[in-house]
């Protein structure tokens, strides 16, 4: 735990992670909030709800690198103002929008989603030394897992007991509050010894978006696709056995073990390659399809859970190391886009595998997606051996600043 104490002792780190947890809990649940509104308030099908969610996700995927590039050029607070205002308008208007207009508005809201996740990652890279980043990004992944466990469950509970329209207002309020809090905190996105690089000429995209970065982004896409598919496979398995009501318990076990895995990984003395962690995650996911009831499925998901947060943290760490400081915003935006694309593609691919075979086929498809992208990352990293090398350690005298 000493490594985590040193990270949390960095000035501004604890409030940054706390604000990130609050805002990401709401952002993680935005798709569920739209689903509940379309199904319960508009009395439409889940397919229609999926259309609204797909529109929102497409906007997020396209907006990530654009907002990141704008942060690099114009600064954090400019982008936060540019994104907070549209979120206020969208979430206030959701309960009165007809479905067709909701589709268009969802895309715009996704395009201008408050970039809490990418800003948090940029700030962590700027606020920590190279020796602290393994633990710091492990904590960031733990924050993400906690938001995933809490956010959708809270939305489902309140949408069913109060009103999906009121839930949309509350969710929007939390997103806006998170963005405003980040603007007030104004975390540094450049370290003191990186300030001179900020004024340097912006490198061309070909100079930094090479084989090494593509390998990392591919693996970020792969782990998101795997996780999206696992969620669907859990539901399909328990529905087939008449135990669907236990799905929340299985998902909770998955999330809690991921938190544990992230904390253990952050305390390790040295990092592991992303391709290795992702490959192991894919391997342990495939046999989860052998479970036939919820207690055994909980047991089967422990291995995958323990590897999830570590894999996610190594992706973030690698992106922060590979991106030149003047394009770090765009690079973290591309990472967010890769994850959004993976989540969007994982459910239909795994769903098709389930439809043509059985629920166990869903776990197999998700695991194979992880293995395939891990292999791709490994092959690209062999072409670029420097990818696995840690960044030079900066002067640690600023660790507590």
TrEMBL record:
Transmembrane segments: 46-68, 75-93, 99-116, 137-160, 166-185, 214-238, 244-265, 272-288, 360-380
GO cellular component annotations of the record: plasma membrane
UniProt-listed Pfam families: MFS_1 (PF07690)
Gene Ontology MF term list: transmembrane transporter activity
Top-level taxon in the UniProt lineage: Bacteria
The keyword Hydrolase is assigned to this record: no
Assigned keywords, A-Z: Membrane, Transmembrane, Transmembrane helix
Subcellular location: Cell membrane
Coiled-coil ranges (or none): none
Domain called Major facilitator superfamily (MFS) profile: residue spans: 1-190
Membrane topology: Multi-pass membrane protein
InterPro entries the UniProt entry points to: MFS, MFS_dom, MFS_trans_sf
Family annotation (PANTHER family): MAJOR FACILITATOR SUPERFAMILY (MFS) PROFILE DOMAIN-CONTAINING PROTEIN, PTHR23542
Protein name from the UniProt record: MFS family permease
């Amino acid at each position: 735990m000493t490594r985590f104490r040193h990270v949390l002792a960095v000035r501004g780190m604890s409030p940054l992670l706390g604000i990130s947890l609050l805002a990401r809990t709401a952002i993680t649940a935005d798709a569920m909030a739209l689903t509940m509104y379309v199904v319960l308030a508009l009395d439409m099908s889940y397919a229609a709800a999926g259309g609204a969610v797909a529109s929102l996700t497409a906007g997020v995927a396209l907006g990530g690198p654009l907002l990141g590039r704008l942060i690099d050029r114009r600064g954090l607070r400019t982008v936060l103002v540019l994104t907070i205002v549209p979120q206020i308008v969208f979430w206030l208007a959701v309960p009165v929008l007809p479905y067709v207009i909701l589709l268009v508005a969802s895309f715009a809201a996704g395009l201008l989603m408050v970039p809490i996740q990418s800003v948090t990652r940029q700030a962590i890279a700027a606020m920590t030394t190279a020796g602290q980043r393994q633990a710091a990004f492990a904590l960031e992944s733990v924050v993400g897992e906690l938001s995933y466990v809490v956010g959708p469950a809270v939305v489902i509970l309140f949408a069913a007991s109060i009103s999906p329209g009121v839930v949309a207002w509350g969710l929007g309020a939390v997103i806006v509050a998170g963005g405003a809090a980040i603007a007030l905190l104004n975390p540094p996105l450049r370290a003191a010894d990186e300030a001179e690089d900020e004024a340097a000429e912006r490198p061309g995209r070909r100079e930094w978006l090479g084989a090494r970065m593509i390998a990392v982004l591919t693996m970020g896409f792969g782990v998101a696709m795997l996780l999206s598919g696992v969620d669907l496979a859990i539901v399909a398995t328990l529905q087939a056995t008449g135990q669907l009501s236990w799905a929340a318990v299985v998902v909770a076990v998955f999330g809690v073990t991921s938190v544990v895995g992230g904390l253990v990984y952050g305390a390790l003395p040295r990092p592991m390659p992303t391709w290795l962690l992702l490959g192991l995650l894919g391997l342990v996911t495939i046999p989860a399809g052998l479970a036939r009831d919820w207690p055994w499925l909980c047991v089967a998901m422990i291995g995958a859970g323990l590897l999830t947060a570590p894999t996610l943290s190594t992706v973030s760490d690698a992106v922060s190391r590979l991106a030149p400081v003047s394009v770090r915003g765009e690079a973290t935006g591309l990472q967010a886009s890769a994850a959004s694309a993976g989540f969007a593609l994982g459910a239909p691919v795994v769903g098709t595998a389930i439809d043509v075979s059985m629920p166990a086929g869903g776990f197999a498809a998700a695991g194979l997606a992880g293995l395939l992208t891990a292999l791709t990352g490994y092959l690209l990293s062999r072409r670029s051996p420097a990818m696995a090398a840690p960044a030079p350690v900066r002067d640690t005298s600023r660790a507590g600043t």
